[in-house]
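ok trying again, last paste got cut off:
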Amino acid sequence: MPSLIDIRRRIRAVKSTQQITKAMKMVAASKLRRAQEAILNARPFALQARRVLTSLATRVDPTAHPLLANPEGGEDAPALLIVITADKGMAGSFNANIIRAAGNFIADRPNRPIKLVLVGRKGSDFFRRRGFPVLYDVMNIFGRLDFTDAQIIAKVAMDAFTGGQVQRVFLAYNEFKSVLQQRVVIEPLLPIPREDVTQADAMAQVDYIYEPSAQQIFDTLLPRHVEFQVYRALLESIAAENAAKMVAMDNATKNSAEVIESLTLYLNKVRQAAITREIIEVVSGAEAL
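nice, full thing came through this time. structure:
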């Protein structure tokens, strides 16, 4: 049976851990408010831009711009997967879910060469240790995220696509749904997706009028669209990470309270047993005399 001092020492250790997890929960909640505001402000523009560009890609010749070109190899064409994870843990299954989804994506396409762009230390450590081909990786950008970070990542993807290294580009990230729910998303980024329309819809379509010219608009609009979709995915991941971290630290705080209660009860039982034993010894000694 452990001594009273050992049990008290363990209770103090759990209380110290509880204070840390409670503080981490408050920090995550503070960061979540800012991250949630950022993604809610960016999401409408990003989604509307994607709808417009998808409609535009349906109406124009795929050869009008390199970012619209259809892959020649179909589903077995070489692909690039941008995987967005966190730099740190303590966020429950946040990193494990996105890494598992990316691993399944690669495993489901054994005949397709897939290169990786890794954002975040957790994903970089996992895939590099296992020898996956990594085209580019970046870490420690979430604390000071800027649009230029998304531009750099998007440029790597666009250069690989237009240079012929890959013929498809996908984004893998955690989408922020609510504080209690994050959804793993793997979506196509390049070539610009096209609408799935029926023949009747195609007959009813009308083309756009371009001013100053279609080529100038494509050269400006399409790269910016890719950059902003990457930026949106980064903002989604930041909000989802802070939500997952807040929930994980809240659960850890509650669990530590249960452990403290259990240890306190055990401490009282041990102390009562020690007192009872001492009383029995005194009584036994008195009877012997």
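cool. The chain has a mean pLDDT of 82. Residues 214-288 form the longest helix (75 residues).
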